[in-house]
Amino acid sequence: MTEAIQTQLEIARQARADGDSVAARNGYAKASALARETNQPLFRAFALRHLSDIDREADRPDAALAHAEQALALYRRHGQEASLDAANALRLMALALDGLRRPPAAAKAWTEARALYVALGIETGVEESDVHLAEMTD
After folding, report:
1. How far apart are CA 44 and CA 32, in angstroms?
2. Distance of alpha carbon 15 from alpha carbon 111, whole angstroms
3. Torsion of the alpha carbons at 71, 28, 43 and 52, rounded to the nearest 10
4. Region of 13 on the Ramachandran plot (φ > 0 left; ψ -120 to 50 alpha; else beta)
5. pTM for this predicted structure
6. Cα angle for residues 91, 84, 75 (degrees, 5° grid)
7. Do residues 32 and 47 make contact, with C-beta atoms less than 8 angstroms apart?
8. CA 45/CA 73 separation, integer angstroms
9. Residues of the chain where predicted confidence (pLDDT) is lower than 70
10. Residues 17, 28 contacting (CB under 8 angstroms)
């Protein structure tokens, strides 16, 4: 069944590259549903992360936050709490919280994401986190 999930993820990725956010969102939603039905939590988390990003870009911060939180919970539940994927889920949570104008919660998410990016040696993630955290103290 992972082949069906991967097919949906590829359809979604291509739709997004083509600028078709509706088809991309549908593809990621189908991949997430298939992953849930077939007990593939890391594929589901991946799809949820991309749904979060699409929702954020469409100015739907509540939905973006919900998807990012679900993705992060799956990563943590399945031993991926210190992964780049978890850091990226935290980043998406922070961006959604920024969009919802919830600075204390956003700062916490940015701080957690930054710590993971530091541990993983992802300088661009550290820099982005620093920029957002600095904006919160201005």
Report:
1. 5
2. 32
3. -20
4. alpha
5. 0.94
6. 85
7. yes
8. 8
9. 1, 138
10. no
